[in-house]
Backbone:
């Protein structure tokens, strides 16, 4: 589907003049920088961080480009995926007028970001098998629906959303379809990044926080057509990714072999953990997972959660989430951590 992205933008964003520094405005190389009121003498650190970082993170984008197979100009790097989500609301949704569709149970920040930006949320629950309710989505769309958020593999259920169903939404919805692939590295599902040239309304979110083990650095990525990336760059803070973060991320991206080994081990441990959980009497169901976590339906889930907390083991209680009653979401840990978890659950007595 081809959509005029400009027609979806808020009027004030269409007319926005973005912040521009002197370094955006000159071409070529310079050796004396007296434009940005930095400390010209250096930093009180072994590494000099007195200069502002590259506002568009081109070296990092070029490295990501070689790994993902996407041109650098189709990449936005945010302070976590949360920034990439928030900017979409601020750029495309008129407060108090527009709405977005989410498909619970799903990642909670879509709703939080909508509420912060005063954007109405329409909830179309997943079907009992945790797949899209296409009829429900079609009925929920109105003239003010700007975005649909789909998390795949889904958080907290762990399953991948049927690819053909997502393509149906992409082909028929005249707004942005945001596919959150935070857990794609642990899945056999193909990324939708490959479809960017087919759908101008597609935004794919990924992150370096999960498989890449860089959660503390807060690096989220949005992949989209050039027009959407231009909007991202227009709205974002001038220097949203620090120099130190860019340098550390570049270093980490050289270690793809290590990351692939961790992914393989995580998938192996996921299968072992699922099997061991299923053998425990109070565990009623272990849902299939394409992520680095498992959702398990458990008798007395609330009590078990408190029991684990008392013993210093923190999992996520999802019992109050729609379709996830009496369920705990458990991250796949190291073999040692998983053994401690299983041993402790077996000690639980109601």
Residues:
């Amino acid at each position: 589907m081809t959509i005029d992205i400009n027609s979806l933008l808020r009027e004030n964003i269409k007319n926005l003049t973005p912040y521009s520094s002197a370094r955006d405005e000159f071409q070529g190389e310079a050796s004396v920088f007296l434009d940005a009121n930095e400390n010209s003498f250096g930093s009180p650190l072994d590494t000099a961080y007195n200069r502002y970082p590259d506002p568009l993170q081109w070296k990092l984008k070029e490295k990501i480009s070689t790994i993902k197979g996407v041109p650098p100009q189709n990449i936005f790097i945010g302070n976590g995926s949360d920034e990439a989500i928030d900017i979409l609301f601020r750029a495309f949704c008129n407060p108090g007028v527009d709405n977005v569709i989410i498909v619970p149970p799903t990642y909670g920040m879509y709703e939080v970001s909508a509420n912060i930006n005063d954007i109405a949320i329409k909830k179309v629950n997943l079907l009992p098998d945790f797949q899209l309710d296409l009829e429900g989505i079609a009925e929920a769309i109105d003239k003010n629906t700007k975005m649909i958020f789909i998390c795949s593999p889904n958080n907290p259920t762990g399953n991948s959303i049927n690819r053909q169903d997502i393509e149906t939404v992409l082909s028929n919805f005249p707004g942005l379809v945001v596919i959150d692939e935070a857990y794609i590295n642990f899945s056999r599902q193909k990324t939708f990044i490959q479809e960017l040239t087919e759908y101008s309304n597609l935004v794919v979110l990924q992150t370096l926080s999960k498989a890449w083990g860089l959660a503390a650095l807060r690096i989220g990525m949005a992949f989209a057509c050039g027009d959407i990336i231009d909007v991202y760059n227009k709205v974002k803070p001038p220097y949203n990714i620090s120099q130190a973060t860019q340098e550390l991320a570049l270093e980490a991206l050289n270690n793809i072999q290590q990351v692939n080994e961790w992914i393989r081990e995580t998938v192996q441990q996921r299968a072992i953990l699922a099997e061991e959980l299923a053998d425990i009497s109070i565990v009623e169901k272990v849902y299939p997972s394409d992520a680095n976590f498992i959702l398990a339906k458990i008798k007395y889930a609330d009590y078990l959660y408190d029991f684990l907390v008392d013993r210093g083991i923190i999992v996520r209680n999802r019992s109050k989430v729609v379709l996830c009653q009496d369920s705990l979401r458990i991250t796949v840990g190291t073999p040692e951590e998983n053994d401690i978890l299983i041993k402790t659950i077996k000690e639980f007595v109601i």
